[in-house]
Design goal:
The protein is 27% helix and 18% strand. The protein has two domains: 132 residues, 3-Layer(aba) Sandwich (Cobalt-precorrin-4 Transmethylase, domain 1); 114 residues, 2-Layer Sandwich (Methyltransferase, Cobalt-precorrin-4 Transmethylase, Domain 2). A five-stranded parallel beta sheet has the order 3-2-4-1-5, with helices on both faces. A five-stranded mixed beta sheet has the order 6-7-10-8-9, covered by helices on one side. 37% of the residues are buried. Helix 3 packs across helix 4 and helix 6 packs across helix 7. The protein starts with 9 loop residues before the first strand and ends in an 11-residue tail after the last helix. The protein is elongated. By secondary structure, the protein is an alpha/beta fold. The protein contains ten helices and ten strands.
Length: 288
């Protein structure tokens, strides 16, 4: 069988951490310094890219911004990964937070495997851990809770009624990703299921950045404290008894600037190469 002369590069699926550019692993930094191409999410510190990416490397912003502004389709990101790797380049796919917590890493893994592209996965600090630490809220603590759950709530049918009842009654700390815009629904569901009044609610805006701001309230006082507030993205929601520890252990002063640490996508858009627009990449297989 004749050997192909085609040179295939490699893709590094790496984590940038929750915001603070120093919350990144040495391994990710090493790959950033070696990369030919960096495909960066919106929630990646500009300082991190400026400090560690070579001047000759190409940086392509492929972020998503929910319903606000423009977002890069996942299929386009998949095409970019394959196109650059098939050019023999070292590609770093840089994701905010951790690689495998509420990200589209499965889609990207599938397309890499389907196209026989070598890859590595480099973990990092996920938003829940960063937000909790910088807010002085241990996610587990003796006498408060021994477990934590990572969830998301972006539409009303994501969680069934029976699960809401369990969430309201559990002693686990609840962490909701990408859910600040649906916060009223979360509060309503938990109160409807009689969540204990000693379980507090924290919303951490722009966690681990100089613009971090922590909002704390009792769930039964939500209407007079936080209802109707528009939180700056990204914001993380923490619910549980451990939230009460914030008052004692908060070590980072709240920012009152109201500025955005992460730029809106419209200001980060990088032109996608014409070759990628017409690239023939295998579509994701249906999942069993």
């Amino acid at each position: 069988m004749q050997q192909s002369s085609h040179i295939t590069g490699k893709v590094i699926l790496a984590a940038a951490g929750p915001g603070d550019p120093e919350l990144v692993t040495l391994k990710t930094v090493r790959y950033l310094q070696q990369a030919d191409v960096v495909l960066a999410d919106r929630l990646v510190s500009e300082e991190l890219l400026q400090q560690h990416v070579r001047a000759t490397a190409e940086v392509v912003y492929v972020g998503k911004q929910c319903s606000r502004g423009s977002s890069t389709p996942q299929e386009t990101i998949n095409q970019l990964l394959v196109e650059y790797a098939q050019q023999g380049k070292l590609v770093v796919r840089l994701k905010g937070g951790d690689v495998s917590i509420f990200s589209n890493v499965l889609d990207e893994l599938e397309v890499l495997v389907q196209n026989n592209i070598p890859y590595e996965i480099v973990p990092g600090v996920t938003a829940a851990l960063g937000a909790a630490a910088y807010a002085g809220i241990p996610l587990t603590a003796r006498g408060y809770t021994t477990a934590v759950r990572f969830l998301t709530y972006y539409k009303s049918d994501v969680l069934p009624d029976a699960y809401w009842k369990e969430l309201a009654q559990t002693d686990d700390t609840l962490v909701f990703y990408m859910s600040s815009e649906t916060l009223e629904g979360i509060v309503t569901q938990l109160r409807k299921n009689n969540i204990s009044a000693d379980k507090l609610l924290a919303v951490v805006e722009q966690a681990t950045t100089p613009l971090q701001h922590v909002h704390i309230t009792n769930l039964y006082e939500y209407e007079t404290s936080l209802k109707g507030k528009q939180f700056i993205s990204p914001s993380l929601v923490i619910i549980g008894r451990v939230v009460a520890l914030h008052g004692q252990f908060a070590w980072l002063q709240n920012s009152t600037s109201g500025e955005h640490y992460f730029k809106p996508l419209a200001k980060l858009v990088s032109a996608i190469p014409d070759s990628v627009k017409t690239a023939k990449v295998k579509k994701n297989v249906s999942r069993a």
